[in-house]
Design a protein that fits this description.
By secondary structure, the protein is mainly alpha-helical. About 75% of the residues lie in helices and about 0% in strands. The N and C termini lie far apart (about 80 Å).
Length: about 190
């Protein structure tokens, strides 16, 4: 009787998902341009040849990893849509969502990685615009397209601001600016 451990069954689809997940993690950490087969294989704990076995080119692997990151963005957007449907699309609700979102470092980095990649690769711009397009859609139902677009651009700016400043914008500042952009009366402050 042999004491050897049983051989692990090969699961090509699981290995493929592990490679994509590793590539997505690395895109968030180092950016799209720095990504290499070797880095991905090391992170996924697979042989180097596995990355080329499952993906014809590094570009194909990058594209699938970016799509994975966009799926994460879509999932967060679904939560935002539900909150807006339940509580409305006012400045106070949007500010709460923004402040909560700013505490999710992975989400911020994933969004930054997708948008940065799209700046350099026009074929990725549709993916990068997905968040903006959906936010405008959610907000336009209540505020009209022009105000929804202005508010969404401001929210984008807040997200980028958080990437280069140690301290995020104060919630009161965000809410006041959103109220102005959305044409709402600002809530009284407790001075």
């Amino acid at each position: 009787m042999s004491n050897a451990a049983p051989r692990r069954r090969r699961d090509p689809e699981a290995r493929r998902r592990e490679i994509v997940a590793a590539a997505a993690e690395l895109i968030v950490e180092v950016g799209v341009e720095a990504l290499t087969h070797r880095m991905i294989a090391t992170r996924a704990d697979v042989p180097l040849g596995a990355t080329t076995q499952y993906f014809a080119t590094l570009d194909d692997l990058r594209a699938e990893a970016l799509q994975c990151l966009v799926a994460e963005v879509d999932q967060r957007l679904d939560g935002i849509r539900l909150t807006i449907a339940e509580r409305g699309a006012g400045a106070a609700v949007l500010t709460e969502l923004i402040v909560d979102g700013l505490s999710d470092a992975h989400a911020l980095e994933a969004d930054r990685a997708v948008v940065t990649a799209a700046v350099h690769d026009p074929t990725l711009r549709t993916l990068a615009r997905r968040w903006t397009d959906r936010m405008v859609e959610f907000l336009a139902e209540t505020h009209g397209t022009a105000r929804a677009t202005a508010a969404t651009v401001f929210i984008d700016g807040i997200l980028w601001h958080s990437q280069i400043h140690a301290e995020p914008l104060a919630a009161a500042t965000i809410e006041s600016a959103l109220a102005d952009l959305l044409g709402e009366e600002p809530r009284p402050t407790s001075d």
